[in-house]
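Hey team,

Filing this mostly as a record. A colleague (T.K.) asked me to run one chain through the structure pipeline before their review meeting, and I want the input and output archived in the tracker in case anyone asks later how it was produced. No errors, nothing strange. Just documentation.

Input sequence:
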Amino acid sequence: MDGYPGVIGGDSTKQQERHYYLLSELQTLVKDLPSSSFQQRLSYNTLSDLALALIDGTVYEIVQGLLDIQHLTEKNLYNQRQKLHCEHQALKQDLARKHKEALQSCKSHNLALLKSNQQAEQEALEIRVRDEQRMMDKKIVAEIDQKVIDQQNTLEKAGVPGFYITTNPQELTMQMNLLELMLKLQQKESQSGIL
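Output structure:
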């Protein structure tokens, strides 16, 4: 089997050959999965259905689009987190500078009160920073969770077997394994000039 360009409608023999080729490649790739329990869960029927979904190459394009969106989202979220971190660093530096200037101009009889007030300001800032970071992290997790749901929904609507909206960790791992299989197969077909 030298090559099978995407088959749309057309010759059912070529479609069947492409299906068998994809199924064979998927069966080979499954053996490289990290967990034998996931290998066992990927039945012949599941792999056959996945091969059917991959025949015309549309699913590859969908997966690549979802991957691009995911990378942009992750980069954006990382940049937001970094921006918040930089803002917090600037606040801490400003407060330290302000405290240093106040200490230099403070009269000795007010020193204890000043240090007490500065300690309270420092603790208040640390609490604010911790709360803002926690809120940002929750926002990031919620946004990533939503992206996963969007991806599951898109792949389910595209007819890719094994994809549906779930938060079950085992099912999510299974879906990640299916995505890994599709990406490896796409890469192999691209390198061999089939796609």
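Quick notes for T.K.: Residues 1-9 have pLDDT under 50 and may be disordered. The radius of gyration is 27 Å.
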